[in-house]
């Protein structure tokens, strides 16, 4: 049965679209055509082979086996056959390197989250891939590897003999997060229903920004609110949560334009991925089933993040948590570490923890815990809310109409067998992809070493426990008073009262 012979209902990330752009095909003269608005300019209609000097199939000219698809007018909107080829590259990549799933998720947020609705500027515009300086900003450290892989996939996809496309970097980045989270929901790995969703639900056509500004990264939420962080707040101070809660309100709600519930559920994407480069020697996921190797198909994307932050802490309010922060064993002043949860160490930022408790003081910021509690007990509710918010996020700053992939293929047909081809990487040249992944990971490792060397003091500050920091602070005060030799105060890792080093 041909997949395209029936009407396809376009569902955007689990929410029925108000405007159904993907329409039922009309059979005309034994062939398949679309309404004029969605007509593919590369499609040549025919009645017999002589009409196109190739093969006439279902009223459309198709290339002979092995013949490159004609490409006189590369398209901004790919057809479903072309999206299927993209999925082959992405599926092959994550099977080789499952960590890409969490990394591409982060990349999607960090491209779109630069949006400021008050200007407006930034957004899902491809700057993270197209402007090298964006990867040098603190907020985007350690994204160079996954972005390099995405860039290689984009080039291989465009060069494939059966594609005729000019798809933007903005589209590639946002499709990557949609691919990663859709693939890992419920049972990790790609299945037939997920494949159909990926073919039909994503909307294409985002333009790339030509004048990217690195200052846009300041619209992304920060996380350092402990001693020496953005707020320079005392250790164990409840105001750390206040600063974190206000940061989410100011950035995600105020600038990005998300609602309280949308901001909360999007942070739940931390359910997959790991702390990788920022805290050397302390790499760990947020939740035990979010680690890269949780299953042979990678991490699980579900509501475990919310279940953990709501149900694992002993205390139920910020004030009590500040003095009894179980289940975490270590407070690093801007983040917490659970050394052993089901055999896995876990890390959580202050901006994660603030989602677990009512605001302190009351009214200082929205009560994110209301939504967190709801998501913690209902995975279906979480996924529905997440993909609705993700759809909104993937369009931040986009002012042009977007369209789903064209059902009618210019260079081939699509049916159920194409799903198996995605799983088996049929029809793509794997060696260039594998080489690109290897090179990207090698380059990323070198970049990580350089970042660790250049920002050593910052990294040490972030990875020194509160108790150790207090000890060093006392030594620093004694050194300043001349009580002890300054060299004994370990100045490279000292954080002073005013937050300076």
Structural notes for this entry:
The chain has 501 residues and is mainly α. The protein has 17 helices and 13 strands. It has helices at 80-96, 99-112, 127-130, 144-159, 169-184, 192-200, 239-255, 260-267, 304-311, 318-321, 350-353, 368-376, 379-393, 417-424, 430-454, 456-462, 466-480, and strands at 11-12, 15-16, 26-28, 31-33, 55-57, 60-62, 203-204, 274-275, 284-285, 330-331, 335-341, 344-349, 403-404. Helix 2 (99-112) crosses helix 5 (169-184). The longest helix has 25 residues, at 430-454. It is elongated and about 95 Å long.
**Which strands sit side by side, in order, in the main sheet?**
10-11-12
Overall mean pLDDT stands at 83
Using DSSP, what is the number of strands? 13
Estimate the helix proportion, in percent.
25-40%
How far is it from the N-terminal to the C-terminal residue, by CA? Answer: 68 Å
Main sheet specs? 3 strands, antiparallel
Strand content: 5-15%
For the CA atoms, what is the radius of gyration?
Answer: 25 Å
What is the 3D form? elongated
The secondary-structure element order is: EEEEEEHHHHHHEHHEEHHEEEHHHEHHHH
**Unreliable parts:** 1-42, 225-235, 486-501
Number of helices: 17
Structural class: mainly alpha
List the helices and strands and how they pair.
Blueprint: E1 11-12, E2 15-16, E3 26-28, E4 31-33, E5 55-57, E6 60-62, H1 80-96, H2 99-112, H3 127-130, H4 144-159, H5 169-184, H6 192-200, E7 203-204, H7 239-255, H8 260-267, E8 274-275, E9 284-285, H9 304-311, H10 318-321, E10 330-331, E11 335-341, E12 344-349, H11 350-353, H12 368-376, H13 379-393, E13 403-404, H14 417-424, H15 430-454, H16 456-462, H17 466-480
């Amino acid at each position: 049965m041909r997949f395209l012979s029936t009407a396809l209902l376009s569902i955007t990330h689990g929410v029925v679209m108000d405007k159904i752009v993907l329409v039922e095909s009309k059979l005309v003269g034994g062939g398949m055509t679309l309404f004029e608005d969605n007509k593919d300019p590369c499609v040549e209609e025919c009645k017999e082979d002589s009409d196109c000097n190739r093969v006439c199939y279902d009223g459309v000219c198709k290339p002979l086996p092995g013949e490159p698809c004609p490409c006189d007018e590369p398209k901004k909107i790919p057809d479903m056959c072309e999206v299927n080829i993209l999925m082959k590259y992405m599926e092959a990549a994550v099977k080789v390197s499952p960590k890409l799933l969490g990394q591409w998720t982060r990349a999607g947020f960090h491209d779109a989250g630069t949006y400021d609705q008050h200007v407006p500027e930034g957004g899902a515009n491809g700057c993270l891939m197209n402007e090298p300086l964006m990867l040098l900003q603190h907020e985007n450290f350690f994204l160079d590897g996954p972005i390099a892989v995405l860039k290689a996939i984009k080039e291989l996809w465009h060069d494939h003999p059966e594609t005729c496309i000019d798809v933007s970097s903005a589209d590639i980045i946002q499709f990557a997060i949609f691919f990663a989270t859709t693939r890992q929901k419920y049972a990790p790995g790609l299945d037939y229903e997920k494949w159909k969703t990926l073919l039909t639900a994503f909307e294409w056509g985002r333009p790339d920004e030509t004048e990217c500004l690195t200052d846009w990264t300041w619209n992304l939420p920060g996380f350092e609110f402990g001693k020496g962080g953005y707020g320079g707040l005392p250790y164990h101070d409840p105001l750390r949560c206040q600063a974190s809660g206000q940061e989410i309100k100011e950035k995600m709600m105020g600038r990005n334009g998300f609602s309280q519930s949308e901001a909360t559920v999007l942070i739940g994407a931390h359910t997959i991925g790991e702390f990788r480069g920022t805290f050397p020697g302390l790499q760990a996921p947020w939740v035990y089933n979010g680690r890269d190797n949780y299953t042979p198909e990678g991490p699980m994307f579900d509501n475990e993040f919310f279940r953990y932050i709501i149900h694992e802490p002993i205390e139920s309010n910020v004030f009590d948590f500040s003095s009894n922060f179980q289940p975490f064993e270590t407070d690093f002043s801007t983040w917490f570490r659970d050394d052993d949860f089901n055999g896995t160490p876990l890390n959580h930022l202050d901006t994660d923890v603030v989602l677990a408790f009512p605001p302190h003081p009351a009214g200082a910021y929205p009560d994110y815990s209301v939504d967190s509690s709801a998501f913690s007990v209902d995975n279906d509710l979480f996924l529905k809310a997440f993909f609705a918010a993700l759809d909104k996020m993937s369009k931040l700053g986009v002012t042009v109409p977007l369209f789903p992939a064209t059902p009618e293929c210019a260079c081939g047909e699509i049916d159920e067998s194409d799903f198996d081809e995605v799983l088996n990487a049929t029809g793509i040249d794997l060696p260039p992809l594998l080489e690109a992944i290897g090179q990207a990971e090698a380059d990323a490792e070198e970049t990580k070493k350089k970042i660790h060397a250049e920002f050593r003091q910052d990294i040490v500050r972030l990875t020194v426990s509160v108790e150790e920091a207090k000890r060093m602070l006392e030594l620093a005060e004694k050194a300043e008073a001349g009580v002890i030799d300054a060299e004994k105060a370990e100045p490279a890792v000292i954080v002073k009262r005013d937050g300076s080093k």
